[in-house]
Amino acid sequence: MPILFANPPWEIPGRKTVRSGSRWPHSYPILSTKKKSYKPYPFFLAFAASYLAQYRDDVDFHDSILHDETEEDFFKIINSEKYEFIILEVSTPSHFR
């Protein structure tokens, strides 16, 4: 069974979100639909996928932030195949007082 490495969607209405390739996750307001948004490549996730692909031929990689996918789109991708493992690029929120 295949293994999926994925950068899942992160949605905040009216804002663009950045998680992968940056030191910390953040979002910024959508100011123009014509302006290109910052979408860094998920290097660490891609490195792990490419390393495992040296030993297995059933490794999949998907970046939902790059494709501006919704959570619904992402779940369709996950459910399209029976994955043995799903590895996600996520961030843990921090709260300071």
Describe the structure.
With 97 residues, the chain is an alpha/beta fold. The chain has one domain. Helix content is 21%, strand content 23%. It is built from two helices and five strands. The protein has helices spanning 43-53, 71-79, and strands at 3-7, 15-18, 26-29, 59-63, 85-88. The strands form two sheets. The protein has a three-stranded parallel β-sheet, covered by helices on one side. A two-stranded antiparallel sheet has the order 2-3. A hairpin with a 7-residue loop joins strand 2 and strand 3 (26-29). The radius of gyration is 15 Å and the shape is globular. The N and C termini lie far apart (45 Å). 11% of the residues are buried. The mean pLDDT is 84.
